[in-house]
Specification:
alpha+beta; four-stranded mixed sheet; 7 strands; globular
């Protein structure tokens, strides 16, 4: 059996993407994990940092790959790297079996496009990861995500919620 302490964290980025109504983009993952008995498979865009890639560069790339557009500007950055551990039952198989979980640098971004620019179909050549997407209130996020990511989402929400309380400036 693989022990979490024997494995490193995967360097990753996450993006809290806000529209002009201060709602957060969230997608429902195609790959299902039902370990906590829930169907809470929603998440914000996230993904690994490639060798030699800066976190912000990775975040913009991930937006393009996962939602089909990177029309966004940074409005905040979490000061810390946030870690989550995979559940023991998927350790050794999830994330290619090479990692205990992920350490993530989170960015808040303002979406500069229109909803019709979002394309989760994989038409951009990237593997399709979501089967649905929607804009949600920031307070919904922690209740929509799988349990093992909930502590990270709680910290992301705490850091970036003030950004949702003001009217966005002109683009």
């Amino acid at each position: 059996m693989t022990s979490a302490s024997d494995l490193p964290y995967r360097a990753c980025v996450g993006i809290l993407l806000l529209n002009q109504s201060n709602k957060v983009w969230i997608g429902r993952r195609i790959a299902k994990w039902d370990g906590d008995g829930s169907q809470k498979m929603w998440q914000m865009p996230q993904g690994g940092i490639d060798q030699g890639e800066a976190p912000l560069e990775a975040a913009m790339r991930e937006l393009g790959e996962e939602i089909g557009t990177n029309r966004a500007r940074v409005i905040g950055e979490h000061p810390d790297w946030l870690n989550y551990d995979l559940p023991q039952e998927v350790l050794g198989s999830a994330l290619g079996g090479k990692y205990r979980g992920q350490t993530q640098k989170w960015f808040a971004m303002r979406f500069l496009g229109q909803d019709n620019m979002i394309d989760i179909s994989g038409a951009n050549g990237h593997m399709e990861e979501f089967d649905q997407w929607r804009w949600c209130h920031i307070d919904e996020l922690s209740d929509l995500v799988v349990s093992f990511k909930r502590p990270v989402y709680t910290r992301v929400v705490a850091q970036f919620k003030p950004l949702t309380l003001t009217k966005p400036g002109p683009e």
